[in-house]
Design goal:
The protein is globular. By secondary structure, the protein is an alpha+beta fold. It is 26% helix and 33% strand. The chain binds biotin (BTN). The site of biotin has 20 residues, from helix 1, strand 3, strand 6 and strand 7.
């Protein structure tokens, strides 16, 4: 089993960048970069990821899978599953996974995941970045209706260092299961936590705006949404997925 090696920083630009720099310098699989604050935190699809210094888990795991490039998107399911099961096991919350890899409590986001890949030191390197809203009480106005934190959900402060350790172990365990058992098994387990089945949503992709109802994920990991005519659409990437019910 891969043992995590955690490296702690006060402030960094992005833990994903620090982890990639360490990978380029030859750091081994299982290296984990954890920071108290990021000045250039980034989210998926070019978004900015902001944090309240000292109140969030901001971490990146270095993975070096020897799998085809086409299999790497499947890894995001393993990582988000690892985050979700760790948060559940720590009994803070009852987490769900909003496709593709946001961790939700009810209808609010508590954690986000950014998986990036690169070639470094002759290896395929995957950096799994994880941001958990842990001890925040307040959010920026643009997030206050959609974000939550572990503190707001469970009423008590979270030990961020302990949680980073638990998340590292859980994500690495899911990663190893993904490598040994395959994507289908990971996906089957991921589906148990899926948020929003039966939910009416508006999905914005690069090519369309689709109104429909979430039905599940197919065997490739695409989101299945039925429109008003009953036609099933497989969504492979989306900019936003917003609920349309009141
Ligand atoms: C998202 O939901 O858009 C993904 C957010 C990922 C944020 C984490 S925080 C640690 C790591 N470093 C980054 O710059 N981003 C990820």
């Amino acid at each position: 089993m891969i043992q995590p090696a955690l490296h702690w920083f006060e402030t960094v630009g992005s833990t994903n960048d620090v982890a990639l720099d360490m990978a380029r310098a030859g750091a081994p699989e299982g290296t984990v970069v954890v920071a108290g604050n990021q000045t250039k935190g980034r989210g998926r699809r070019g978004r900015v990821w902001t944090d309240e210094p000292g109140a969030c888990v901001l971490m990146s795991l270095l993975l070096t899978p020897t799998i085809p490039l086409s299999a790497i998107p499947g890894l995001t399911f393993a990582v988000s599953l690892g985050v979700t099961t760790a948060l559940k096991a720590a009994s803070y919350i009852d987490p769900m996974l909003k496709w593709p890899n946001d961790v939700f409590v009810g209808n609010r986001k508590v954690a986000g995941i950014l998986v990036e890949s690169a070639s470094a030191a002759g290896r395929c390197v995957v950096i799994a970045g994880i941001g958990v809203n842990a001890n925040q009480r307040n959010f920026d106005p643009d997030l206050e209706d959609t974000a939550t934190s572990l503190l707001l959900e469970c009423g008590s402060c979270v030990d961020i260092r302990a949680l980073a350790g638990k998340l590292s172990l859980s994500v690495l365990a899911e990663y190893e299961r993904f490598l040994s058992e395959g994507f289908e098994i990971t996906l089957e387990r991921w589906r148990r936590y899926m948020w929003g089945i039966g939910e009416s949503v508006q999905i914005t992709t690069e090519s369309q705006i689709l109104n429909g109802v979430i039905r599940g994920v197919d065997g490739s990991g695409a989101l299945l949404v039925s429109d008003k005519n009953g036609t099933l659409h497989a969504i492979h990437a989306a900019d936003t997925i917003k609920t349309t019910r009141n």
